[in-house]
Amino acid sequence: MAENSRMPVSLNVGVGEPSVPSEVTLEARNICHYFLPVKARRALLVIDGVSLTIARGTFTAIVGASGCGKSTLLRIFAGLVSPSKGEVLLDGEVTRGPDPRKGMVFQEDSVFPWLTVQKNVEYGLRARGRKGDVVRAEATRWIQAVGLEGFGEAYPRELSGGMRKRADLARVYATNPEVLLMDEPFGALDALTREALQADLLNLWQELRKTVVFVTHDLDEAAYLADVVVFMSPRPGRVTAILPVPLGRPRSPRIRTSPEFFALTRRFREQFGYAELGGSRALAGEAGTP
User: Fold this and answer.
1) Which of 67, 152, 172, 262 meets the CB 3.0–4.6 Å disulfide criterion with 118?
2) What residues does each domain of the chain span?
3) Spelled out in words, what is the top-level CATH class assigned to the domain 24-101+177-276?
4) Segment 87-97, tens digit of pLDDT
5) What are phi and psi of 61, to 5 degrees?
6) What does the pLDDT look like over 107-141, one tens digit per residue?
7) Rg of the chain on CA atoms, in Å
8) How many other CB atoms are there within 10 angstroms of residue 44's CB atom?
């Protein structure tokens, strides 16, 4: 099925005031992680001494080469992987294991194929102890919010890839997490569908201001969505730079064609080149410089 649904959120054209981080909500302290491949003689160091602070209500993108550990770091944030060393804090408290205050969206479809869209979205609510008619009403509200009105009784096999990803978003948002962790959620989609979902995600974020940590290979995607972009070196993954995105909010898709956007993505590509070589140039504050 072709991607033909859009979130019913109006797009505001132009550049507003930059968002200002308020307080720390998510923190990684000196995270190191080893991975022991099958038949390997020794463990591989995947992440080396990563410390990050994520401000409440901000949108942070993490970029880096394949295999640099960015997805592993996201799973450590989610509590799905225990770090070999270091700790993760949420609202100042050390967290271990999954936490209902965190929601995760994967690159792969995570909807249950044997359940309808409605039942998929209801599942997360029921798993958290919600009962009665309020569950169906809340699920229906989020199905509509992500642009899937009329598809509540459809099964995932009857939907396009983009529509299944919308169902994923509805499932996670319905549980009302404080932090939304997203692992290349649009990476497998075609270019047009990907850009449509980026714009719709940005509108949802603008309305609800969830704390988002978003892993991507796409530097343009990072520039369009994020307040801050974290660059990681090739394995073992280390933070090589943290660059602000000096584009105001709210953002329209038209900003992609602006001189400021081109200058910013050029700076990101330069920094990504340094990261690919294992560089550690401190470029924070230089984002947007031609």
Assistant:
1) 152
2) 24-101+177-276, 112-176
3) alpha beta
4) 999 998 999 88
5) -105, 140
6) 888 889 999 999 999 998 888 888 888 899 999 99
7) 19
8) 14
